[in-house]
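hey m, so remember when u said the tokens were messed up on ur end? i reran from scratch. heres the input so u can diff it against urs
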Amino acid sequence: MSAIGKDAVNFRRMTRSDIDAILVLVNKTTQVKTHVTYRELAANDPGGPLDLSLVAEAKGQIIGFIMARLEYVYIPFVEVCLVHAVVVDREYQRRHIGSALINELSSHCHLQNINTI
């Protein structure tokens, strides 16, 4: 992905230890003051069995993330990936990092036989 630029970007699953950096990034990139708390993000169990969230890292810093969860809907149950948010640091916007996060999530879902996002 040449649009990402010269900084190497790594994509990986979000973990609980990423929450503080995620909160900093949310407050840095949103114009409206958010009231998302550590407790609320921790309740989603980042890295847990139902969490599909990913982070993008460059130079050892989290520069973006996609919050997503596995949900079971309908009867009989159908697995659905529900995307809650895609956030990219302003300094890294317009480099297709958000698109890359969505593509990474889509690939992960495909490997897990989750056909609906």
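this time it looks ok to me. The domain at 9-111 is CATH 3.40.630.30 (Aminopeptidase). if urs says something different then somethings off w ur setup not the seq
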